[in-house]
């Protein structure tokens, strides 16, 4: 796909992003354990990347500051790409760019709840010691270091 622009999230993008993620995930998504880490939290817009073609939003990934045990980590999600724009590498590029931005901003690691076959390609691995604030399939809790020698996140994740 050509003519795609990737840029950090702007305040005026929020409505289009929520519309995209609502359609991608369907009703009930706010019941997820991951949403416990977004409620009452403030999105890190500079690290949250959107993909655009002209005025059309094609994809979005959001990043959130959280505490895990005694440390801090950036929490990735949701990520969504418009159905008719999928399988062109937009999702992977969004993940790469938000991780690069987080590394540049000094974050040591990023974690998420998602499918290991997808995120494994982008360097994510199981984070067995992260506890989520709600029911979750622990095999879907994944992390990736952003700095050399970064310790794996461990402990309860919370806002
Ligand atoms: C997941 C999503 C963001 C991927 O976006 P995308 O732009 O199509 O991603 P990419 O082009 O980088 O990668 C596409 C590849 O990943 C695969 N893939 C997509 N979702 C996958 C998943 N959940 N598990 C394993 N593989 C997956 C596709 O089959 C495709 O494989 P191919 O390259 O062999 O054809 C998009 O499918 C989406 O918005 N899904 C609905 C929302 C969602 O489920 N988000 C969270 C995922 S855990």
What would you note in describing this structure?
The chain is of the alpha+beta class and 159 residues long. It has one domain (5-158): Gcn5-related N-acetyltransferase (GNAT) (Aminopeptidase). Helix content is 22%, strand content 32%. The protein contains four helices and nine strands; from the N terminus they run E-H-H-E-E-E-H-E-H-E-E-E-E. The protein has helices spanning 14-25, 33-36, 90-104, 116-119, and strands at 5-8, 49-53, 56-68, 71-81, 109-113, 125-126, 130-131, 141-145, 155-158. Strands 1, 2, 3, 4, 5, 6, 7, 8 and 9 form a nine-stranded mixed beta sheet that branches. A hairpin with a 2-residue loop joins strand 3 (56-68) and strand 4. Bound molecules: coenzyme A (COA). Residues 24-25, 79-81, 86-92, 114-115, 117-118 line the site of coenzyme A.
- Unreliable spans are none
How many DSSP H or I helices?
A: 4
**Major pleated sheet:** 9 strands, mixed
Cα distance, first to last residue? 37 Å
**Percent of sequence in beta strands:** 25-35%
CATH class reads Alpha Beta
Which cofactor or ligand species appear?
A: coenzyme A
Number of domains: 1
CATH topology: Aminopeptidase
- Over the alpha carbons, how many angstroms does the gyration radius reach? 15 Å
Secondary structural class: alpha+beta
Provide mean pLDDT, rounded.
Answer: 96
Order of helices and strands: EHHEEEHEHEEEE
- The CATH architecture designation is 3-Layer(aba) Sandwich
SSE order and pairing:
Blueprint lengths: L4 E4 L5 H12 L7 H4 L12 E5 L2 E13 L2 E11 L8 H15 L4 E5 L2 H4 L5 E2 L3 E2 L9 E5 L9 E4 L1
Parallel strand pairs: 4-5, 7-9
Antiparallel strand pairs: 1-2, 2-3, 3-4, 3-9, 5-8, 6-8
This protein binds coenzyme A.
The site of coenzyme A has 16 residues, from helix 1, strand 4, helix 3 and helix 4.
């Amino acid at each position: 796909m050509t003519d795609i622009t990737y840029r950090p999230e702007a305040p005026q993008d929020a409505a289009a992003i929520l519309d995209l993620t609502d359609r991608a995930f369907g009703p009930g998504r706010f019941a997820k354990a991951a949403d416990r880490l977004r409620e009452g939290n403030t999105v890190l817009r500079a690290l949250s990347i959107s993909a655009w073609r002209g005025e059309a939003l094609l994809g979005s990934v959001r990043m959130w500051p959280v505490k895990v045990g005694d440390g801090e980590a950036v929490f990735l999600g949701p990520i969504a790409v418009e159905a008719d724009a999928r399988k062109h590498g937009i999702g992977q590029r969004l993940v790469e760019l938000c991780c690069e931005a987080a590394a540049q901003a000094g974050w040591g690691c990023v974690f998420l709840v998602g499918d290991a076959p997808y995120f494994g390609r982008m360097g994510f691995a199981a984070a067995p010691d992260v506890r989520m604030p709600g029911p979750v399939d622990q095999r879907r809790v994944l992390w990736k270091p952003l700095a050399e020698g970064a310790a794996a996140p461990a402990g309860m994740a919370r806002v």
